[in-house]
Design goal:
4-stranded antiparallel sheet; mainly beta; 7-stranded mixed sheet
């Protein structure tokens, strides 16, 4: 089992940057595929970005491609989401998630993930 703790959210203006971090407990972080999801007020949770166990495979939802970058540091048990050129529509609670896997590939489906953090709030003002 793994415990996930997100941090790095905040209130920023349009065009600003934020870096979210998700720290995982345990010594087997490198056996988990990781994902970032977000949930805006009144909307369903949606996929944002995912990364495979080794960090070599990544995938993004179209709305964040070219602006967001997911990365991981397995030595630090941490996955990151660098968010640049933020827009008001990026406002949401952001959650990281983990899926134990032997595959090096990423996963994009919410139902695939076994463990979730508590979320960190991102608000982008216009």
């Amino acid at each position: 089992q793994v415990r996930l703790v997100e941090s790095g959210g905040g209130l920023v203006h349009t065009g600003a940057s934020l870096r979210l971090s998700c720290a995982a407990s345990g010594r087997t972080f490198s056996t988990y595929a990781m994902g970032w999801f977000r949930q805006a007020p009144g909307k369903e949770r949606e996929f944002v970005a995912a990364i495979g166990r080794t960090g070599l495979s990544t995938y993004y939802v179209d709305s964040v491609k070219g602006r967001f970058t997911i990365s991981r540091d397995n030595a630090k048990n941490t996955v990151y989401l660098q968010m640049n050129s933020l827009k008001p529509e990026d406002t949401a609670d952001y959650y990281c998630a983990a899926k134990p896997t032997s595959s090096a590939f990423y996963f994009t489906s919410i139902s695939t993930y076994d463990y979730w953090g508590q979320g960190t709030q991102v608000t982008v003002s216009s």
